[in-house]
Design brief:
single chain
Length: 264
């Protein structure tokens, strides 16, 4: 391969195909539930019986609309989990995985600096997530057309962007930790723990008054607050790639100082 970026894209082509097919299938299966759920005569009463905390957390007051259904069924947990799983796994594999398999030093003998290696791997990670975002966008539009969800092009575009940026932030964290430690398991553990802590802050911020002021610090709040379908573009979206850039900038000098050839 001519560049690290091209090699990274080539390496993830099969996994991207599998993730894309699985994601599209999940979206279409969930969308197929809408016609029967939307026609339930006692749906609002059924939703009113849920505890108030759950109605608030999952925006169940809007569940009787196509947009509210997709927000609750797909964007409240399932889609973020799928995107985060892919991003963290891919980010951890990008450098730490190459190092553990003994192929990273081969990349480093090519005309690329360690910072260039980090940047190109991050670009490949973002490209993969954008590809998954395109699949998500197309699958929801198809599901909306087939099952009458009434999802608009613009609102769905911003919601999809929010999922891509959310996953990129934690994928970049896994990439950075893997670059610093050379340990794939450590990279996955740190990024996954950060994601869980962030989600708990998002949930607790909605349920506990004293924690609510801290909720905007959670990337989940930045990505999902107000929808995400229907929230439109939010300036808070920019915080997620900004943090991703910061963690990789912090990792770059540590990666440059490491003696990778004798690290394992």
């Amino acid at each position: 391969m001519r560049t690290v970026f091209a090699k990274a894209l080539h390496d993830q082509r099969r996994s991207l195909l599998g993730w894309g097919l699985g994601l599209a299938l999940v979206v279409l299966l969930e969308s197929a539930l809408w016609p029967s759920i939307g026609k339930m005569t006692n749906l609002q009463q059924f939703l009113a019986d849920y505890p108030e905390a759950m109605r608030k957390l999952f925006n169940l007051q809007d569940f009787g609309t196509g947009t509210g259904f997709v927000n609750g069924e797909l964007f409240s947990a399932l889609v973020p989990v799928l995107f985060l799983t892919y991003a963290i796994g891919r980010g951890a594999r990008a450098i730490a995985g190459e190092e553990e398999s003994g192929t990273l030093d081969v990349l480093l003998v090519t005309p690329v600096t360690t910072t260039g290696l980090l940047v190109q791997q991050a670009a490949a990670l973002l490209s993969g997530l954008l590809a998954l975002g395109a699949v998500l966008y197309a699958a929801i539009l198809l599901g909306s057309a087939l099952f009458g969800l009434g999802i608009g092009l613009g609102p769905l575009l911003f919601a999809t962007l929010a999922m891509v940026l959310l996953a990129f932030e934690f994928g970049a964290l896994a990439l950075a930790v893997g670059a610093v430690t050379g340990r794939r398991a450590t990279a996955i553990g740190v990024a996954a723990a950060a994601a869980v802590a962030s989600y708990l802050l998002y949930v607790a911020g909605q349920l506990v008054t004293s924690i609510e002021p801290w909720r905007p610090l959670s990337p989940f709040d930045q990505a999902m607050s107000g929808g995400p379908i229907g929230a439109g573009f939010r300036w808070a979206y920019l915080a997620m790639p900004a943090v991703a850039v910061l963690v990789m900038a912090a990792a770059a000098p540590r990666l440059a100082r490491r003696d990778i050839a004798v690290a394992h």
